[in-house]
Amino acid sequence: MATALISVYDKTGLLPLAKGLVNLGWDLLATGGTLKALGEAGVPVREVADYTGAPEAFGGRVKTLHPRIHGGLLFRRDDPAHVADAARLGIGPIDLVVVNLYPFEATVAKPGVTAAECIEQIDIGGPSMIRSASKNHATVTVLTDPNQYESFLKKQAEGTWSLEDRRACALAAFQRTAAYDAAISAWMASGALGEGLPERLSIGLEAKQTLRYGENPHQPAAFYVRPGAPAEGIAACRQLQGKELSFNNLLDADAAARTVFQFAAPSCVIVKHNNPCGVGRGPHVLEAFLKAQAGDPVSSFGGIAAFNRPVGVEVAQAMVQSFWEVVMAPAFSPEALALFAAKKQLRLLETPATWPLSAHGLDLRSIGGGFLVQRPDDAFTPVDQWQVKATGKGPKPLVEDMVLAQTVAKAVKSNAIVLVRDGGTVGIGAGQMSRVDSVEIACRKAGDRARGSILGSDAFFPFADGLELAAQHGVSAIIEPGGSLRDKDVIEAAQRLGVWLFFTGTRHFRH
User: Fold this and answer.
1) Beta strands in 13-77 (DSSP E)
2) How many CB atoms lie within 10 A of CB 106?
3) Strand ranges (E), 37-92
4) Is the dihedral of CA 366, 367, 372, 378 positive or negative?
5) pLDDT tens across 14-68, in order?
6) Residues 2 and 26 sit within 8 Å (Cβ to Cβ)
7) Distance in angstroms between the alpha carbons of the first and the last residue of the chain
8) Count H helices, E strands: the chain?
């Protein structure tokens, strides 16, 4: 008679699996809550403690850590020496392990959870049995997910359960324990990590959504999250209508939301190809949207728009006049939803009330041979700490517009130049190899609106030519971090041309 050991925290599918095994002639072993659930359902089952002859100890911390359990899982059935040892020690084979682990990830995600509570959810026996069974998958099966149960029973009944099936289950099991250990190490490191980075970084992820393709149709892609971690950002959004989000949609949606939630006032950010092309703020979201769209009406077409306030019917009426890939907001009024419903291809996302700058406080990028890891750019020098390097001919710029210009510059690919006037962007130059080229693009997009605008730059001007070009187009103020060897030339040019010049001291490159 084949023997199965079942010890599961998540009881989903437990009874159909256990009853199916009994019908196929299997002998069942179980522990704790699993034993109780099977007994109450009338399923014949033996307690592991009776099988091993060793009672549970230390409040259940030691139940399955016994030679009869791990020997039964690990001994090779094709090795005469192993078989002889098993017979000598009275160890019978265990052919199936069904285990899912204590909910460590869900526990650490709970608000106010204590360290002691988290530690108690570190499973020891479960991962140990999983690893033993997985190592010996030549003859032993390990099931770690209720979604595996039906297929296993079906193939067992047909006699078609194979080495290939056992190897696939072993792979899934090792992936689960790897993610589990990564979650534990991340939690233990989080208390002492501070602003630094760990010597070793383990990130266990699971696929939340398989995507149609990546940036291009020939690239397979999926969206991964850390299992059990609190949902945030895109993972916490609720799609209200529209077709499935693509890889590029997800990138752009995150870029739009990450920027718009940095503003306190009602704001709208429109993103195209992972760069803001229009940003607006105002006393209400309609004005914010109109300013954002006016910032670059051509580029906004087919973009992704994110709001940091609920969207009502007035905004929806304005938006349905054009084409949008995605619209994001913390909420939508019923009237707005009714209007958007006519746009069948439009994706509507209901966002959480806040947005993270990165996943779990780390920014990861793959390069040939490894990964680059950094903390997210969450710095922003307060305006009262900016240094005034040149006083312009006109009045001092509005603080709100200066903050808007510099915040948007943080979100634009380097070299980033952002022109702002009256609460909205009027021209953005992004991703150019030369900063003066970015200035030229921003001024060209702004046209006459460049006159009297404020320029935000993500990094210093290496030469005075960029400032001089901006001044020719009527830009009245420039905000940059400073730090160039030629800062003196830039300052002298600003003083000579009557342009306000502020140094923030903080660079915001975004490659």
Assistant:
1) 27-30, 46-47
2) 15
3) 46-47
4) negative
5) 999 999 999 999 999 998 889 999 999 999 999 988 888 878 777 777 777 888 8
6) yes
7) 62
8) 19, 21
**Alpha-carbon separation of residue 259 from 149, 354, 405 (angstroms):** 44, 11, 12
Q: 480 is written with which tokens?
A: 């940059």
Q: Is 149 helix (H, G, I), strand (E, B) or coil?
A: helix
pLDDT of residue 192: 44
Q: What is the DSSP letter of 444?
A: H
Helix (H) or strand (E) holding 423: none
Identify the pLDDT of residue 469.
97
Structure tokens at 76: 């090779």
Nearest Cα residue to 340 out of 362, 318, 366: 318
Tens digits of per-residue pLDDT, 347-357?
Answer: 999 999 999 98
Whether 223 contacts 208, CB under 8 Å: yes
Q: Is 69 helix (H, G, I), strand (E, B) or coil?
A: helix
DSSP structural state of residue 57: B
> What is the spatial distance between Cα 137 and Cα 241, in angstroms, rounded to a whole number?
44
Give me the active site residues, please: 135, 273
At 143-178, the pLDDT tens digits run 999 999 999 999 999 999 999 999 999 999 998 888
Q: How far is it, in rounded angstroms, from Cα 332 to Cα 239?
A: 12
Distance of CA 320 to the CA centre of its chain: 30
Which residue, chain included where needed, has tokens 């479960």? 126
**Peptide linkage before 136 cis (omega within 30 of 0):** no
Give the CB-side neighbour count of residue 463, counting CA atoms within 13 A.
Answer: 9
| Cβ burial, residue 319 (10 Å; 0-12/13-18/19+) | buried
- What SS3 state is found at 464? coil
Residue with tokens 């090792």, as numbered in its chain: 174
**How does pLDDT run across 226-256, given as a tens digit for each residue?**
876 778 899 999 999 999 999 999 999 999 9
Question: Binning pLDDT at 50, 70 and 90, where does residue 203 land?
Answer: confident
Indicate the range of 95-109, 146-160, 377-391, 417-431 predicted with least confidence.
95-109
**Nearest-angstrom CA–CA distance, 102 and 124:** 9
Token pair belonging to 339: 């209007």
239 backbone dihedrals φ, ψ, rounded to 5° = -80, 125
Is residue 506 scored above 90 in pLDDT? yes
CA–CA distance, 87 with 90 (Å, rounded to integer):
5
As given in the structure block, the two tokens for residue 20 are 């199916």
Provide the pLDDT confidence category of residue 191 given band limits of 50, 70 and 90. Answer: low
pLDDT (tens digit per residue) in 317-367? 999 999 999 999 999 999 999 999 999 999 999 999 999 988 878 889 999
* Residue 99 token pair: 């285990």
Extract long-range pairs of 81-88: CB within 8 Å, 24+ residues apart.
Answer: none
Which tokens sit at 382? 């307060």
| AA identity, residue 102 | Y
